[in-house]
Amino acid sequence: MTFLYTPHLIRELVDVPIEKVVTSPVACHSVLISSAGEAWVLGRNDRGQLGKDHAEQNIRYPVRLDPAVFNKEKVVTAATGRNHTLIVTDAGKVYGAGDNRLGQLGRNGSIPGFTLIKSLKDHTVVDVACGADFSVVLNDNGQVFTFGSLEFGQLGTVTSSNLLKIAGQFGAEPSPDPTLVQGLSNRKIVSVTCGTNHTLALDDEGYVFSWGFGGFGRLGHSEQKDLGSPRMIDQFSSTHRINRAVKITCGATCSMAIDGNKQLYLWGKWKNTGDGSSGQPWMFPKPLFDLNGWKVSDIAAGASSLFALVYSEKTSIAWGQVKYGELGYGDDVQRSSTIPQKIEPLEGIAPLMISAGLGHTLMIVKPDNELVPELPKWPAVEETEDGCVKCKKTDDEDNLLLCDKCDDSIHTYCAIPKLTEIPEGEWYCDRCHPPNKKRSHSTSSSVPDLSVSERKKAKAAA
Prior knowledge:
The protein is 4% helix and 34% strand. By secondary structure, it is mostly beta strands.
């Protein structure tokens, strides 16, 4: 088993512009969406959650899904549950794959590969979220529909009395039919997010609503009671719009939000001991004073990891008690931290988006930075002797190029097609980019490429 303790570029996708990365606190699988509207998947597939035959239980490297599966519509967003996945196209259609034993795919019975959820065909869906065994969809009218397990009230469609009846009866009453969350009917919701068994919704005025499992105060209501229907969180009900929320997200057992001042708020349980642990959970949203002075632009929470991105400072911050390198601090440093720390290997690289999962983290960064190509790539390739893979000669390093995908070295005059000078931006060899093969995506960068000799000089200077 391989652990990556420092951020790596995904080798298979270095030449694919990615616009969105999707995973969740309960998921060991991920969806990556390109600017061309194509979906790539990787991770655990034991229940067919990647839309592939579940005999292939783990997909280690990104695999592109056939656009024909989605009627050749562009993929715009996705969501991942414990063992299921939802994908939304630009036509507002939703496709599901994976485990459906509790109706989390919006229908009855098993589903072979990604299948259109016909029960949502009359809606134009713009956003989706998945908890462990349930799903939430948002249509273009700001209405929220839920389906799947309702064990803890996470669907937001049960009364308090009915919630008491079903408490603890796992899977006793799955709800496969998408049902309108009536408690939000007078609101226009713009964002939804799920933890393991709880849900948050943000409306167009910045008010935040929560429901589902209330353990450790993750619902933000100063109590640990489960809620079967939405309830507004007091901390984001100010008469001043700037003090309300602009972004929300859920961890496995906690919740996060950013207000109009770009202040980060946190509540629930996110560590093992001390303040914010099971013994001392934060029962309602509190500002995280460790980040005072930082204008937080984006947030993410995984199973045990927390992240804050500061776009204006080109800074990525992480904390949490983790085991597998999810925080990306580096190879020879601490693996975890209970207080926010900069992700030093990414310092100076502009982050664009982050998504945190169960034991892993995905981030998109701006490519127009000379530091990005110097990040290690995954998977690693076996190092070969310096020299051109075409002519086998090791001289003339000033005209020796390094492929930005496979790391092969090739002289400019041995390249196919031949080059007369070092190219601007990324460069890929003919093995990675066959000249006569039409590509469905393209890349560009304002950073000039470097010859092998120039790369060596830059590395030595660093």
